[in-house]
Write a structure and sequence with these properties.
The complex is a heterodimer of chains A (265) and B (340). By secondary structure, chain A is of the alpha/beta class. In chain A, 34% of the residues lie in helices and 23% in strands. A six-stranded mixed β-sheet of chain A has the order 6-7-8-3-9-10, with helices on both faces. The chains are: A alpha/beta (265), B mainly alpha (340).
Chain lengths: 265, 340
């Protein structure tokens, strides 16, 4: 359903700082796929997500979703089909607005925003129901300003807001990296739950190899703008962290030295 | 003294609409929009020239509102499509509008004293129905007739207009579009990721803000009975002062509360202004300085109060700690004594 066709992206082209973020990347995703992407800093993982979301435009190549060409569409048009959760818990919610108001805005992702009062009793009940699945008590705090929530709570809310309107593609950009370990656990289990519940096609970038192995049915390892290793289904199920490390060494011939992927085990 | 406070209430209510506009740009969109100094006169100028041209005052006032909206949209376009910094976009518009306003008005000063304005119309209605007597009654009943204002029509009308504007703004800010507008000022990344074009909302919001400012200008011109091309100088600071005073004095917990606070802030500002004018050694030309000082005070004092209350809290807790320590020590001494 999602096809990437020979995508190229170079930053600061024709200067001494030139950096090839993505080079000649082609991939196809099927409906219901859950892809995890790992790779060291600067491998092009976030660039890839930004290209999909429309924050960046590719230098060459095109992106199709269900036979529709996404490439020329700006971010806000693509957002109709694409849900995102950012690394920074502050990025996905509006701090000076209440929880229910934030939920209303996420509802506008799929529908045109009208000049009517958005909030109805029915919607409030819906929101409560969705919030209660998070099991962190947000359903009783609909009128709390989001700025007063903790980072973990905000990220859980962001995740819910990105998923409950059932986007065709869900992009998770290291969405647990800024949280402490216990909150990471929470967000990860919520991710699993919500993705399964809405059967979303998901792409998750992570720095932690274990997460990448735990989650999803496909795994891409990226380096220097290319997917250098990929595993699917049974092959992926058998993968272990040492496997991944040795695969990387085999291909690149270098140690993934001094890398967060290693530090995070 | 009392009469000047009634005057402050009347003008305060008119300028409250301008303050609500400034609230939209400054607070909701987080866009320091200096267009206000120009769009205020644009609204006034359009209304004045329309009234002189024989247009019905209500229509003329609405024309001012629309003119302000268009002007604001241009500022928004300069910022979003032209990538010009908000402050600079506002300054550019402010400078450019000075000439535009002169063109609209044809001369630097227009008199409306012999024209039919909203206020003169309403005054006529009040007199023909002798409604003033109704409002005077409570004063007479309380034996306070000496303190009653000369006439009520301006206060009653402005109260109505301001309440309508406030209510519609409150409702608008709760609609789906209004929510997206507020979120645009709060977190643009997030709003874009939820399929809203932030540029559109910025243009719309700045347009709406300047529409309210121009509406206020159109009413001020009719209230004063003249339009002047320099009427808008320093208007942005007045608006900001009203917003800040209102938020500090009356709170900003919810939107409904904040819009009310902004209106009250505008009235309080006018009251302070009226009092300052009555101080002997001050002259009318000192008012700009006083306005500037009011804004500085409104910005600095709340911060200082908070800091000093934090300090006091800290000292208090330190004292309490010391007391606990002392008591512990005494208990130990007593224990030691009883043991020995």
């Amino acid at each position: 359903m999602l096809t990437l066709n020979q995508i190229h992206k170079t930053f600061y082209a024709n200067t001494p700082d030139e950096r090839r973020a993505i080079s000649d990347l082609s991939q196809t995703l099927n409906e219901g796929d859950f892809v995890t992407i790992i790779g060291s800093n600067g491998a092009g993982k976030s660039t890839l997500l930004n290209l999909l979301a429309g924050t960046l435009l590719p230098d060459a190549g095109d992106i199709h979703l269900n036979n529709q060409n996404l490439t020329p569409l700006p971010e806000e048009k693509r957002a109709k089909w694409i849900g995102r959760v950012f690394q920074n818990p502050m990025a996905g919610t509006a701090p000076n607005m209440t929880i229910e108001e934030n939920m209303m805005i996420s509802l506008g992702r799929t529908q045109k925003r009208s000049l009517f009062r958005g909030m109805t009793k029915k919607k409030r009940e819906q929101f409560k129901e969705h919030l209660s699945t998070l099991e962190i008590g947000l359903e009783n705090r609909l009128n709390t300003k989001v700025g007063l929530l903790s980072g973990g709570e905000r990220q859980a809310l962001s995740l819910l807001m990105a998923t409950f309107t059932e986007p065709q593609i869900l992009l998770l950009d290291e969405h647990t990296a800024a949280l402490d370990p216990s909150k990471q656990e929470l967000i990860l289990s919520l991710t699993r739950e919500l993705v399964e519940k809405h059967s979303l096609t998901t792409i998750m970038v992570t720095h932690q190899m274990e997460q990448a192995i735990d989650f999803g049915n496909r795994l891409w390892m990226m380096d220097e703008g290319k997917i250098i290793f990929e595993a699917e289904d049974e092959e992926k199920d058998k993968l272990t962290v040492p496997d991944l490390l040795s695969a990387f060494q085999e291909i690149r011939g270098t140690k993934m030295a001094n890398d967060r992927a290693l530090l995070a085990k | 003294m009392i009469t000047s406070l009634y005057g402050a209430l009347e003008t305060g209510l008119i300028y409250a609409i301008m303050a609500l506009g400034v609230y939209i740009s400054f607070r909701i969109l987080d866009f320091p929009d200096l267009t206000v100094d120009g769009s205020f006169v644009t609204g006034g100028g359009v209304a004045a020239i329309s009234i002189i041209g024989g247009v019905d005052p209500i229509v003329a006032t609405l024309l001012g509102f629309v003119a302000g909206f268009l002007v604001g949209c241009i500022t928004g376009l300069l910022h979003t499509k032209g990538n010009i910094n908000p402050l600079l976009a506002g300054i550019i518009m402010m400078i450019g509008l000075y000439s535009v306003n002169l063109r609209i008005m044809g001369q630097a000063n227009l008199s409306l004293l012999n024209e039919i304005t909203l206020f003169s119309q309403l005054k006529g209605i009040f007199e023909s129905l002798s409604l003033d007597a109704v409002f005077f009654a409570p004063y007479e009943w309380l034996g306070l007739s000496a303190y009653a204002p000369r006439s009520f029509y301006a206060i009653v009308m402005m109260l109505l207009v301001v309440l309508i504007v406030k209510k519609s703004l409150d409702i608008f800010l709760q609609t789906e579009t209004g929510l997206a507008l507020r979120a645009t000022g709060d977190n643009q990344t997030m709003v874009r990721s939820f399929s809203a074009n932030t540029n559109v909302y910025i243009i719309l919001g700045i347009g709406l803000a300047n529409a309210l400012v121009a509406l206020s200008g159109a009413l001020v011109v009719q209230y004063n009975g003249f339009a002047d091309v320099n009427l808008g100088v320093g208007m942005i600071v007045v608006g900001l002062a009203s917003v800040i005073i209102g938020e500090v004095l009356f709170g900003k917990k919810t939107i409904v509360r904040t819009t009310l606070a902004v209106i009250c802030g505008a009235i309080v500002y006018r009251a302070i202004y009226a009092m300052a004018l009555r101080v002997d050694f001050l002259e009318a030309s000192d008012m700009k300085l006083i306005t500037a000082l009011i804004v500085v005070a409104a910005l600095v004092i709340p911060n200082m109060l908070q800091k000093s209350s934090e300090k006091r809290q800290f000292k208090r807790s330190q004292k309490a700690l010391a007391k606990v320590e002392r008591q512990k020590g005494e208990v130990q001494i007593v224990n030691a004594k009883s043991n020995s």
